[in-house]
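pinging the channel bc i need a second pair of eyes. not urgent but kinda urgent?? the chain im working w is below, pasted from the shared doc
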Amino acid sequence: MQQTIPETNYEIIVCNDGGDRAVSALCKKYIVKEVLIFPNKGSYYARNRGVGEATGEYIAFLDADICVPEHWLELGMNALQSADYIGGPVIIDNREVRTPAHYYEFITGFKENNSGIDVGFFVTANLFIKRIVFNQVGGFDDRLRSGGDNEFGMRVLKAGTFRRNFIKELAVLHPPRGFRKLVKKRVRIAEGKLKLNRLYPDRYCYKFSSPGSLIARLVVPPRPSSVKKTFSENNHFGFLSYYLFMWYFKIRVSIGLIWLLLKK
């Protein structure tokens, strides 16, 4: 609500996936449009609903808890004058890094999206797009709980008629996740890749470790030398805490991946 363009030039639509009452209260407090979804149906379903409610020809996507600079909308709108599908960096906010889990996401989170246009798609955590793109290629695949950004972006790329651009100056800040959310995210991404393989076998063929190798990871600790490569001295935790985090994180993620593979 603090942007450099007039408030009459844009609308804010909050897709409350799951019907959180605190979110509804905020929408009423700030008088913004709310799309209430209950029960939870996933972010891609919610985004499709949001696009359906939007009245403008330009659509800007953000994820929850992201902070944007005051010129974010102005910069994105200007960029849409010469492109149809635009992404920008999603930076983990270093000011909020307090724990090993926070630090791990700071050095790994959204790195594939921050490298530029060569990745082929842009994450919906920071995305500007023209409505005409949705009209031609369709919305997000709401059967997916993860990977929908990828699948949609690849359809845009395959269409071959839309101009794509990555604007480094269009950066936003994402808060670092705690341990549980980080594990959940890693497993959710893997589940999304499995579903992409199943739904689009002609387009996706992600490879996964065998259950046996994942079981081995449960008992074999990471090498201290490999962990040190990603560790930096800080005022919040030492190397031992970071090493134990990496070991336990590997165990928890491996358990989640084993469950996914057995379920498949």
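so The radius of gyration is 20 Å. and The beta strands are 13-17, 33-37, 58-62, 85-87, 90-92, 126-130, 164-166, 172-174. — does that match what u expected or am i reading it wrong
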